[in-house]
Amino acid sequence: MPPKVTILLATWNRAKMLPRAIESLQRQTFTDWEIVIADDGSTDETPEVVEAWQKKLNPAPSATGGLVSGEKRIVYVRNRENQGISKNYNTGFRVARGEYIAMIDDDDPWCDNEKLAKQVKFLEEHRDYVGCGGGVIVVDERGKEKYRYLKPETDKAIRAKMLFSNPMANSTTLFRKSTGEKVGWYDETTRYSGDRDFWLKAGLIGKLYNFPEYFSYYTMTGGNTSISKIRPHLKASLMITKRYKGKYPRYYLALAFNELQYAYAFVPEFIRKRIHTLLARLKRFAVT
């Protein structure tokens, strides 16, 4: 029998991060799920780490009172070569069996053990909503909190921000699998900002909601895509904004905002690294 929820964990060369993410899933009070780990051609120890987890003793008791050997809820799919974020997510989506799909990034573990229980209950009771998310706690590489933020809560508030920045924090989200099928999953023509485009598409067929609660950590490191590959990332975000002219409010203001962000990508990297955290705070303030 298929699980109620598929948790899609996308990863690439972050073997050391995986245990913390998986452990955060195992602490969920809602247990009717599978983990699909989509590996985008990792060249580190990711395959060995996943195999070790599949063989690890599961603390859930068996019918005979012993321990169940192996985490049977982990499904591992691996691209032979690095395909990019959007294609890697679609690799995972294709094997997902759950009625709902929850997203988690390899370095952004969940922080609320009731996350899935709350979100599944919400979508079960609100059939006109296609997905939901929550707030984020930003931490450094050592796990020390830097700041936290909530996303716009109501569908109306979310739509007002849709063209400025992604109002759905990826690792906090849960959505109906049928929604992904209707909108065609992630756009593989764009290597970056596929999640933002996905939620813009999803918002055209149903309502969205963000819990005023913190569901996930976000690990800010010097290697985050937003810093090391900021130019193509922000260019993709700008192009995606242009796709939705006339479909969400305040298009021209949002266009100017995204063009300004793209111009920032041409600032020398050593300067961006110094001011990135400050600007990230200001951006969150502007779009939440």
Automatic annotation (TrEMBL):
Domain of life: Bacteria
Boundaries of every Glycosyltransferase 2-like domain copy: 6-159
Pfam families: Glycos_transf_2
An annotated Gene Ontology molecular function: hexosyltransferase activity
InterPro entries: Glyco_trans_2-like (IPR001173), Nucleotide-diphossugar_trans (IPR029044)
Name of this chain's protein: Glycosyltransferase 2-like domain-containing protein
